[in-house]
Structures are given as structure tokens and as C-alpha cells.
Specification:
Elements: H1 5-19, E1 22-28, E2 35-39, E3 43-46, E4 52-55, E5 72-74, E6 77-79, H2 81-96, H3 100-105
Antiparallel strand pairs: 1-2, 3-4, 5-6
Helix pairs in contact: 1-2
Length: about 110
């Protein structure tokens, strides 16, 4: 898949949706004393200068060549969510004749 700016933004938006689905049933809200909290899992990526960057917000202004570096760190394990999303989009393109570069132009 050749990444355009719009497709890169789509990948970052999909990552945010996925990262917002974390839940820790063993956590405690200190204000409400509610057990179990949802949270945004922090994501790591290489910025334009090649430095590791961590954010709990939306990834902004990432160079399209760095999409493959977007990852979650689980101790010594890393989940390369950027590559996973690219693979999922490519699968959808092959299976259903979609073209996400063209679809993002319609937005």
C-alpha cells in the first residue's frame, strides 16, 4: 500500500480507536472508589527526527515512512499496531476491491 497523507491520518485515527479500548479490572478510581478503569494505552513511534516518542493522545504529524514504528510496549513485548493496521487495510483492499487512498479523498 502506498501511503498518502490522508491514509496516514486514517491509520493514526484507527490506532487511537484501538488504544482507547484498554481496561484494567484491578484498578481503583480514587475519586469515585469505582473498581475497574478504562484508559488510553500509550503508544510509541519514531518522530521525523528518528527519536522514540510516547503519547497518550492522537499521533500528530507523523511522517508516512514512520507508520511502521507505531507500537505498544507490554514489558519486553511490542505490538506493532501501525504495521497491523496497514496489513488489515491491505487485506480489506484485496478482499473487497477497496482502495483506501481513493476512499480517503472522498472524505
Amino acid at each position: 500500500m502506498k501511503l498518502t497523507k490522508a491514509t496516514t491520518d486514517l491509520i493514526c485515527e484507527l490506532e487511537k480507536i484501538i488504544g482507547n479500548q484498554c481496561y484494567n479490572p484491578n484498578s481503583l478510581n480514587g475519586y469515585t472508589w469505582e473498581e475497574g478503569l478504562e484508559f488510553r494505552y500509550p503508544v510509541w513511534y519514531e518522530n521525523k527526527e528518528g527519536d522514540d516518542t510516547k503519547t497518550s493522545g492522537r499521533i500528530k504529524n507523523i511522517d508516512k515512512s514512520k507508520i511502521g514504528t507505531i507500537r505498544y510496549k507490554f514489558g519486553s513485548n511490542h505490538l506493532y499496531i501501525g504495521e497491523a493496521i496497514i496489513n488489515a487495510l491491505e487485506y480489506l483492499e484485496r478482499q473487497y476491491g477497496l482502495d483506501f487512498n481513493e476512499l480517503t479523498k472522498l472524505k
